[in-house]
């Protein structure tokens, strides 16, 4: 849900990073946080377990710049990837303006990707959203690992509607900002339409 | 998009700020924050200090969403108020339709007083947000939103310095 404030001349949008456990959602946010100038970002909040797994969500506000006199702010969230956090995962999607699906490119995680993507579609539907109508980007993460599925094969399996597909290695930052830019651009383009 | 945007006009914003100021005074609170249920901060009034109200807004919304989820599991629709009492500082949150009224207070006030004053303000807030929602829907259909005529170049310009 976009929030437009004429008094402070701000537009706020919500982007959610979704995907199976250990696919690199938090790593994406961490890299964005570490690479962004202090004046453009707020705190990175991580509600994690003692073992550093996301328990509820990670959150960071990011200011991209000004368009037509309005500051554009993106609130970036991740969901907990582990299957048993389903109830919490669903809550984070409420009011979402754009989604990044972070897929784990490793062969043995293919089933987890498919299950998580199916779960995303299901959870969006409970709020009355359709993945097909939502700004959406597919990130193929962990491209540096030896046992990855070719990107084309992954795209055939996971791409839903001709959305941008971006290869990434979130731990080094490769593809992280390309992904963010792609989804932010789709969200702003959607705002123009609405 | 399935979810509707909130468009807050300047006059509404100042009206809401004045309401928050009144609540803060009446409840002897440190700070009053109005937050959308999705975690966006709408307005704030009081002793801010170094407090990160953006994070506070996001966590409050997460908190309300989580307890709302628990409420549904036990057959309730939602818990309309939440309170967290600390040694020195406390927080009271009231759910008012699609917004959350969050009051931060210390020993200059009491939970009872904050609850009472928040409840009194809730009705007025609910009415105003109903009107804001109607205005937002109207703004969306009349292409009055600031991004309605935005060009591809303007969108690209946001990303060019990075």
Features:
heterodimer; A: 194 residues; eight-stranded mixed beta sheet; 5 helices; 8 strands; B: 162 residues; alpha+beta; Beta-Lactamase; 6 strands
Helical residues, percent of chain B: 40-55%
Q: Tell me the number of strands of chain A.
A: 8
Number of helical segments with 4 or more residues of chain A: 5
The fraction of residues in strands of chain A falls at: 25-35%
The CATH homologous superfamily of chain B is called: Dynein light chain 2a, cytoplasmic
Report, as a whole number of angstroms, the end-to-end distance of chain A.
12 Å
By CATH, the superfamily of chain A comes out as P-loop containing nucleotide triphosphate hydrolases
CATH class identity of chain A: Alpha Beta
Say how many strands of chain B there are.
6
The biggest sheet of chain A amounts to: 8 strands, mixed
Oligomer: heterodimer
CATH top level assignment of chain B: Alpha Beta
How many structural domains are formed by the residues of chain A? 1
* Overall form of chain B: globular
Low-confidence stretches of chain A: none
Give a written overview of the molecule.
The complex is a heterodimer of chains A (about 190) and B (about 160). Chain A is an alpha/beta fold. Chain A has a single domain (about 5-194), classed as Rossmann fold, CATH 3.40.50. In chain A, about 30% of the residues lie in helices and about 30% in strands. Chain A contains 5 helices and 8 strands, in the order ββαβββαβαβαβα. In chain A, strands 1, 2, 3, 4, 5, 6, 7 and 8 form an 8-stranded mixed beta sheet that branches. The N and C termini of chain A lie close together (about 10 Å). The mean pLDDT of chain A is about 95. By secondary structure, chain B is an alpha+beta fold. Chain B has one domain (about 10-160): Dynein light chain 2a, cytoplasmic (Beta-Lactamase). In chain B, about 50% of the residues lie in helices and about 20% in strands. Chain B has helices at about 10-25, 55-75, 110-140, 150-160, and strands at about 5-10, 30-35, 40-45, 80-85, 90-95, 100-105. Chain B has a 5-stranded antiparallel beta sheet, sandwiched between helices. In chain B, strand 4 and strand 5 (about 90-95) form a beta hairpin. The model of chain B has no long low-confidence stretch (mean pLDDT about 90). At the A-B interface, strand 1, strand 2, strand 4, strand 5 and helix 2 of A face strand 1, helix 1, helix 2 and helix 4 of B. Strand 1 of chain A pairs parallel with strand 1 (about 5-10) of chain B, so a sheet runs across the interface.
